[in-house]
Amino acid sequence: MKTGEDNLIERIRRRIPSTAGGALQVGIGDDAAVLRAPPDADWVATCDPFLEDVHFLAAAHPAEVVGYKALARATSDIAAMGARPEVFLLNLAIPANRAGRWLDGMLSGMARAARKFGLRLAGGDTSRPSEKHPKIALNITVMGLARRGRVLRRSGARRGDAIFVSGRLGAAQLGLELILRGMHRQRKWKHLLAAQFYPAPALQLGQWLAQRGVASAAMDISDGLSSDLHRLCKASGVGARIYREKIPCVTVPDKLRALPLDALTMALHGGEDYGLLFTVPKRWAARIPKSFRGTALTRIGEIVRGRGLTLTGADGKRSAIEPRGWDHFRPRAR
Ligand SMILES: [Mg+2]
After folding, report:
1. Ion ligand 1: residues, Cβ under 5 Å
2. How far is the CA of 218 from the centre of ligand 1 (A)?
3. How confident is the model at residue 331 (pLDDT cuts 50, 70, 90)?
4. What is the distance in A from the centroid of ligand 1 to the CA of 25?
5. pTM of the full predicted structure?
């Protein structure tokens, strides 16, 4: 007899790429997936929760966006390690009233992301949340392959290394600010939501850096530059100095100037941009192009001895930067 859960799994399997072959030896349909890495490769694995009211708002993020973004966020950590995404596992808790149209929308967004990132669904599970707390919860595990011994780590930054970021910082936060003000419903601001809705993991850049072996350290910017640069520095046992004018901040349109939105604050402390933050020994810094496949690569500062981050202003004055990144929808000081 087919249970409701079997039906749900069948619907998911039909929508999302899941054909076995290559690294995925045995896929959906058995008790567990069987994976195989080529002899010269290592598995890289990460998991990421995407929870209603914590990571997304059902009233603001359409179902299709939830599916796309949940997978993109998790895949960004694979990009940050310089690996190639292969398979993912989905754990989904979904209330009965979302198992119809909402689920179809979510699956179509997730399928689009899976095709774009080269991922196949290797398995997973579904459940109903408790009646007391009927919220949607996605937990996604992504696994990728990296050439043996060639992953990008956070811990290799050394004094004098140049610090780079990819893309524009604060763009996802600007989209969130519009959502928090209910302005995302206005068509004229729709284009400002793309970075918030459809983040692009830096897969090609991560693999390029790993293959070239030029980056001494790397990670993705998920919680904001201030928090993530602190993490990279801590892992490497160093400090950092960055320059105000070098930071590639999001552009706030003139028509939004009335809002208390500061581009530098959003660039430093806004999360979810999912670009890469990486360091390169000074003698190789000139080998980093100004842009990589249409995404700007910007040198924003250098690694220094000691601990802590400082920001050098246009006047040459230095101030300390505290980690004050993305804390989801919790109230915070601005
Ligand atoms: Mg990360």
Report:
1. 77, 220, 222
2. 10
3. very low
4. 28
5. 0.94
